[in-house]
Amino acid sequence: MAALGVLIADDSWLFAEAARGRLEREGLRVVGVAATSAEALRRAGELRPEVVLADVVLGGQSGLELARRLAAQPRDGGPAVILISTCAAADFAGPIAGSPATGFLPEQELPADAIRRIVDGRGPAGPPGAPAR
User: Fold this and answer.
1) Which residues are bridge partners to 99 per DSSP?
2) Where do the domains of the chain lie?
């Protein structure tokens, strides 16, 4: 099975580089990093990742809006978008539930196996164990 290609969309360079290192050590292929929504949209079109990890608060922009824009692109269903944040999922429960995102992970808990589980199940947006919508 080929390694999942991941694009990290986060405005914190330190976090993005730490996440890149961890995910690559755990067998994922980080194809790129983007610091803004516009850059993430462009890089997703160029790199065609299977997964986009999008910070809920992407600088002065919204990772939720990025998820909507990626989902609207006509491209074989587009990448799975997993929202990430230093905040708890409960802080964004309503917006996450109403988004086309595949799931949510706290930035502190970003193991590759959790990403694979979310993508394999294409489960509900929200924290693990959340009821299906």
Assistant:
1) none
2) 5-121
Q: 125 pLDDT exceeds 70?
A: no
How far apart CA 53 and CA 133 sit, in angstroms, is 21
Which CATH number is associated with domain 5-121? 3.40.50.2300
Task: Please provide the size of the chain in residues.
Answer: 133
**Cβ 128 vs Cβ 114: under 8 Å:** yes
**Nearest-angstrom CA–CA distance, 124 and 19:** 23
Instruction: Name residue 78's amino acid.
Output: G
Four-residue CA torsion sign, 33, 35, 36, 38: negative
Which pLDDT belongs to residue 6?
A: 97
Residue whose entry in the numeric block shows the structure tokens 């196996």: 113
**Beta-carbon count within 10 A of 32 CB:** 20
Q: Is 85 exposed, middle or buried, given 0-12, 13-18 or 19+ CB atoms closer than 10 A?
A: buried
Residue 89 — very low, low, confident or very high, per pLDDT cuts 50/70/90?
confident
Q: Is the pTM of this model over 0.90?
A: no
Q: What pLDDT sits at residue 1?
A: 59
Confidence band, pLDDT 50/70/90 cuts, at residue 128: very low
